[in-house]
Amino acid sequence: MSINLQTPIDYLKGVGPNRADLLRKELGIHTYQDLINLFPNRYIDRTKYYKINQLQRTSADFQIIGKITAFKEVTQKRGKRLVANFQDDTGTMELVWFRGHKWIRDAIKLNKPYVAFGKVNWFNGKYNMVHPELELLETHEKNVRSAMQPVYPSTEKLINKGITNKALCHIMQQLFMAAGGKFSETLPDNLRSELKLINKQQALLNIHFPKSQELLASAQFRLKFEELFYIQLQLIIKNLSRKSKIKGFPFERVGAYFNSFFKDELPFELTNAQKRVLKEIRADLGSHAQMNRLLQGDVGSGKTIVAFMSMLIALDNGFQACLMAPTEILSVQHFNGLEEWCKHLNINIKILTGSTKTSIRKEIHESLENGELQILIGTHALLEDKVKFKNLGLAIIDEQHRFGVAQRSKLWHKNTSPPHILVMTATPIPRTLAMSVYGDLDISVINELPPGRKAIKTVHRYDKNRLNVFRFIKDEISKGRQVYVVYPLIQESEKMDYKDLMDGYESLSRDFPMPDYQISIVHGKMKPEDKDYEMQRFIKGETQIMVATTVIEVGVNVPNASVMIIESAERFGLSQLHQLRGRVGRGVEQSYCILMTGYKLSNDSKTRLETMVKTNDGFKIAEADLKLRGPGDIMGTQQSGVLNLKIADLMKDSHILQYARYHAKNILKTDPQLTLEKNSVIMHTYKQLSKYKNIWNYIS
Ligand code: ADP
Ligand code: MG
After folding, report:
1. 392 and 489 share a domain?
2. Residue 80 sits in which domain range?
3. Which ligand is nearest to the CA of 554?
4. How remote is the CA of residue 424 from the centroid of ligand 2, in Å?
5. What is the DSSP letter of 289?
6. Is 680 a domain residue?
7. CA 165 – ligand 1 centroid, Å
8. Which CATH number does the domain housing residue 127 bear?
9. pLDDT digits (tens, 9 = 90+) for 616-655
């Protein structure tokens, strides 16, 4: 018989109401279950003893046997410190206390063997240990202890209130005793033996009190697998149930629109990756399930044409389609490009944004409702309640990271039955992250750039070298190229940022005077029509330099622009830098990205700049970004809870994640309802996990 793990923590021996309160507030531990899932951050190996002459100046913890021969008090700036002379047969060192002097002097017996444990510092030509863990050697030898000691997560408050690591270990031991060491198994035997996973009891015992490094490794693997397995299981079940519950419109035909575009209008040969992804989308659209697909492709990989051809399939089946982009500029750009393609096909296409005039807006609303309008491009304006389609069959969202999940679902309700959804993102999400966060979406990847692209050359230059950079810009302009100069715009320091932008614009105007040079400027405070005017001048090649804030970040396509200067590059995040760089390198010419900074750089900034200089690969950049910022930040606070993992680490354990996903998929393939006897443990655990949200609330 095993204990009920949902028992409130207050009931555990050694945990009174005060401690229970602290555990709840500081570590979120409410129940036995929460406690057992409080996994150590690291372990201390206390199997080894060091001699004083073997000590090293590392940050490791050392364990030394020796005797305290004398105490002295040393006056320092504030208060006094107590210093003990500690020696063994190889040398002497000092033990130091800043608090509790009287208690220590009373408790410690001079010239008796002690075990001192802690970090060692090198100070005034001697080793010392501050606030060591001290234990009489004879007590130390009597204590049964595991070789490896766990170090649990903690907070200052816990320690101040006496719940030290030692106390936590003790509380954990109490739980093991209360449970008699018995914990129910949560993975079926057949799976465990197939994957050689140790059982739950062994795993829990050895994660908290490892008997050896080997057993610790097995315990960690088993528990990480389990955690990731059940997350994947839940995501896949969600996806499957959506597919079975939500009927999509089957687009069975590929008809005239698609075929004549493919035969007569295709402006270039599709890359193999584009073809493959189109096939995946076609298969989805043709099935009776609603498509919910994420299309990932680096900047410039050619997602737009894939989106357009998918829309043609919707039109071929008598449905409408829409494309939503995060900014006005990008919507306009999409519209201009797509309108060109639509002309020859006789397709009715319109654009709707915040700045669309009321009269035109009305026309759009009407023609949408009566079905005359076939394709609608636009911004958030598409989400307004007034926008009603006759039969929206496919909704495409460009640059997903700018839209929340809520908006994705809003598009669903534009119809009696939800349209197929294609989400496109140019900020590659590391595979592991995508699997966890978008595990309920199917994923397509364009992993190939159109042919003939030259890799963008990226360099980092200090502000001091600006004159050289300007000379370089002049050279490029004289060859007929165009140049972006981008300034950061951070909301908190908006005023200063605008000043930087305007100062920069002025100094550029001085160095690049009219009439030889024309400069465009675009920033967020301009009226949409002014922005558009300036943008258009640059697109048409009437201006050679575009000075802008990050409004141009997403999607703008000016193939003749070959130089991207990013000012104060240290203030941009990696994915933003990569996005900006993606504005160049779109034509046949060699393109350049120049990252400008001052001399003072934080370590993280340096890493970001080095990463940019080193690679053009969006997936590699995304991985580096994940390492720098952690998953929560990347997905935005809204979704940061998603990855509140207890033991697994998405970066380090990506192989376990893939392994877990593979097995979860496999099991659901043969037993989608988990009704087979051999899967009953999985079903039971899955239900428990869904019931007790406490460890499950990272799945929205
Ligand atoms: P993104 O994936 O960043 O949205 P776009 O769809 O804007 O990329 O495409 C970038 C550029 O590459 C566009 O100018 C587009 O016309 C061009 N392009 C796309 N696919 C191909 C291809 N297969 N061959 C040549 N050029 C292509
Ligand atoms: Mg795009």
Report:
1. no
2. 47-144
3. 2
4. 8
5. B
6. no
7. 57
8. 2.40.50.140
9. 888 788 888 877 876 555 444 333 334 567 888 776 787 8
